[in-house]
Amino acid sequence: MKWGKRIGAAVVGMAAVLGVVTAPAQATTTAAPDISLANVKAHLSALQTIANQNGGNRASGRPGYPASVSYVAQKLRDAGYNVTLQTCTSCAGSNQNVIAEWPQGDASQVIMLGAHLDSVSAGPGINDNGSGSASILEVALTLARENPAMAKRVRFGWWADEESGLRGSKFYVNSLPQTERTKIKTYLNFDMIGSDNWGYFVYDDVASVKAVFDEYFRTIGIQTEGDTEGDGRSDHASFKSAGIPVGGLATGAGYTKSAAQQQKWGGTAGRAFDSCYHRACDTLSNIPDTPLEKNGDAIGYALWKLAVGTSTGPDFSLGLTPSSGTVQAGQSATVTVNTTTTSGAAQAVSLSASGLPAGATATFNPASVQSGGSSTLTIATSASTPNGTSTITVTGDGTSVDRTAQYTLTVGDVSVRTFTNGTDYALNDYATVNSPITSSATGTATSPVKVSITGTHTCSEDLRISLKAPDGSTYSVKPTGSLPCTDLGTRNYSVPVTNEAASGTWTLVVYDAYSQDTGTLDSWTITV
């Protein structure tokens, strides 16, 4: 692969990307290097061998997973990384996350790359997600070999137990103090980047992050699309729910390639992007070279763009005091915005805020400062501002660089932990009902959460009920049953959840799987 050499000038010359992925002022960078396809495939071969020797899979809680951890961790230690094996107590088998940090660059500005290391129990998981794990491993080893000057700190994560509900990444994010979370300026996720009927999908959660990947693909003549299939279903959701900007790549899973996508990328229309998704056939023979090669180089390009270089020009830091607050609807919170010149001359900094809850406004006095100065931020809520917790991002738009800081605002009575939706929903044959509840409770939901459901249905055994958490994770409440039929009435359930934030929208999903019997969901209540 030689794409990096062809686009090196673009790495140096591209204007700084706005906001969370801004390059340091007057940064000098080297061209993104080649990410060796042969080396990535060698890592995949090692993961296949591990699966072959351990029952055909590398699932969390099975012997193949710790063997995968050992392989990745040893490669990183040998390359000079600071490696931590974090035991995830909420993961199957209390398996471990692998965290590796390259010990150079500004430790207060972290670019993090991650991929889940586990497979499903049905197969070795060479695309899902050996492809992402092997690719970021080789990117990490390439960074160590090249050893460029670093503007930012780079950290990698290989996650346990993604397949059971993003458990490893949730555990990691929830274990970080808020001060450490704010150091992570961008998290990039790579889950399935070698699909056999591939597309080129770029996460579109943050436009400025997506632009970095899109620039690389434009340079090699490839059109991309936003990733909808993986939205909320992979480990980036754990970081996004904590207010950390995210991005990433995918080549498709079980969704079907359209005729328009076939025209754009080739392959076969009307067929899944990965015909072996979550199956025993997800082996080395399921991985074509083309998407693996191009996505590997795209990862290297983004890392070099976002983290490599040395700063020689003016810079400043941005901080908030306090970093969190609680008000009732209609009240205001006051925050001091502090700036400090960290290199070069002082520069003008314009201040703005995003992520405000509905009905709230933000004003700065003054609206701009010279770095080294301070401003007072007033966040005013209205009577209509809903209860809940919001992460507000304050951006300092400097002459040379941009810096951000985060403020956590809670509106309402956070002691309330029980919430109800009393809207009636018809339960019809072969139909699905989604009944949402917005929780304003703070902290982590207490597992198991308590769910109480009231309704009528002449054969409740027809109903399959699940609970969708605010980050999109889904938990089973009640499977379908067998005869004889019983009426629904009022039923109470305890639903184990894993490291879920209490605040946000919880959704009860009810599916009537059989014919003839119907009914009504009258109300449901959740205690988090």
Explain this structure to me?
It is a single chain. Helix 5 (126-146) links the parallel strand 3 and strand 4. Residues 1-28 have low confidence and may be disordered. The protein is an alpha+beta fold. The protein is built from 11 helices and 26 strands. It has helices spanning 3-6, 8-13, 37-52, 64-79, 126-146, 167-175, 178-181, 207-219, 236-240, 259-265, 289-307, and strands spanning 82-87, 96-102, 106-116, 152-159, 184-190, 201-202, 225-226, 246-250, 315-321, 324-327, 332-343, 348-354, 361-365, 368-370, 374-380, 388-398, 402-411, 418-421, 425-427, 432-439, 449-457, 463-468, 474-478, 489-495, 504-512, 519-527. An 8-stranded mixed beta sheet has the order 1-2-4-3-5-8-6-7, sandwiched between helices. Strands 10-17-16-12-14 form a 5-stranded mixed beta sheet, with no helix packed on it. The longest helix has 21 residues, at 126-146. The N and C termini lie far apart (50 Å). Helices cover 23% and strands 33% of the residues.
